[in-house]
């Protein structure tokens, strides 16, 4: 994902294991996924204002992080967790790793995650295209997912494997939600025959195989904010992003990330302060260009660069319990259809 990993000078960084580390009374153990990133001054300010020493525990990607919480629930390794999203919330609740009720902050938000999680940010997994490569091809952009199965688009798309990639999984869910299960897997079978490229993770798809980065594929599964990140990190600050979103029906999935308290934590008061912090105006503004997500709290001003990464007008979604019940079998079926 096009988020930068965090580097903390004054904050303690702990690498999670499978046993509960000892911790001081003023420590708050915060488990986060590997894409978590906020400005160091904001984190230091939280510590100073609250008399709390943060211990940030990297849990891997969101699915790996949740699995670690489940494995250590008898002796929790964290007090609060950020990064469980709508594709994992039902699994987290069923596993009993979260406090079942979290006081929700006053005011409306753009996204909700139920009683146990407070929404912090949201984003959209979609298709990105390389403007230069598409223009050079002379082929108009596809208007539907089905168009991508035509000979004109053979060898155009690279996707991360949904078995090993969160955005790859979200894109699979989008196709199922948008096309229906049977038609979705028929589409994936057609794409296999039309030169679909599958790689392990998003980084390989975007930075190696995507034509924007000297790869061969002009279309890639990425995020609606990726074009904005291209402008933000460019040395010359172009007026137009070299990439753009292609929001096709059945090809956009909304991801909502939240924060929740670990069940049985002795640091509930401190953990609730962390929840409020993540939903505060400074953090809601900062996360847009540090984690490349949209703020969950309504009416938060968008960073100017986000005009290059506008949120899609329409997207797909599935009930969390349906994802929990069928997600694993869908991934297994996808593997059989696309890779076997």
Automatic annotation (TrEMBL):
One of its GO terms (cellular component) is outer membrane-bounded periplasmic space. It comes from the Bacteria. Residues 1-24 form the signal peptide. GO terms for biological process: thiamine transport. Pfam families: SBP_bac_6 (PF13343). One of its GO terms (molecular function) is thiamine binding. InterPro entries: ThiB-like (IPR005948). Keywords: Signal. This is Thiamine ABC transporter substrate-binding protein.
């Amino acid at each position: 994902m096009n988020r930068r990993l965090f580097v903390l000078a004054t904050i303690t960084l702990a690498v999670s294991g499978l046993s509960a580390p000892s911790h001081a009374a003023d420590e708050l153990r915060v488990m986060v996924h590997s894409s978590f990133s906020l400005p160091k001054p904001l984190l230091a300010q939280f510590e100073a204002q609250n008399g709390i020493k943060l211990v940030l525990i990297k849990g891997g990607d969101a699915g790996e992080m949740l699995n670690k919480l489940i494995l250590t629930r008898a002796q929790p390794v964290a007090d609060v967790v950020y990064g469980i999203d709508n594709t994992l919330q039902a699994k987290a609740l069923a596993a009993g790793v979260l406090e079942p009720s979290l006081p929700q902050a006053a005011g409306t938000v753009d996204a909700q995650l139920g009683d146990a999680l407070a929404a912090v940010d949201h984003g959209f997994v979609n298709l990105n295209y390389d403007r230069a490569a598409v223009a050079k091809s002379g082929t108009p952009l596809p208007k539907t997912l089905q168009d991508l199965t035509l000979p004109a688009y053979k060898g155009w798309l690279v996707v991360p494997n949904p078995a090993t990639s969160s955005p790859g999984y979200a894109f699979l869910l989008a196709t199922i939600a948008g096309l229906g299960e049977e038609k979705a897997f028929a589409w994936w079978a057609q794409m296999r025959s039309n030169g679909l490229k599958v790689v392990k993770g998003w980084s390989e798809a975007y930075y190696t195989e995507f034509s924007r980065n000297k790869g061969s594929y002009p279309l890639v599964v990425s995020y609606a904010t990726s074009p904005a990140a291209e402008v933000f990190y460019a040395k010359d600050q172009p007026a137009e992003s070299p990439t753009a979103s292609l929001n096709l029906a059945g090809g956009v999935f909304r991801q909502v990330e939240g924060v929740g308290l670990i069940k049985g934590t002795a640091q509930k008061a401190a953990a609730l302060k962390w929840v409020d912090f993540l939903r505060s105006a400074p953090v809601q503004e900062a996360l847009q260009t540090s984690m490349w997500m949209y703020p969950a709290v309504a009416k938060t001003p968008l960073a100017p660069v986000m005009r290059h990464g506008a949120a899609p007008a329409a997207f797909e979604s599935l009930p969390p319990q349906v994802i929990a019940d069928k997600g694993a079998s869908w991934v297994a079926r996808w593997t059989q259809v696309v890779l076997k």
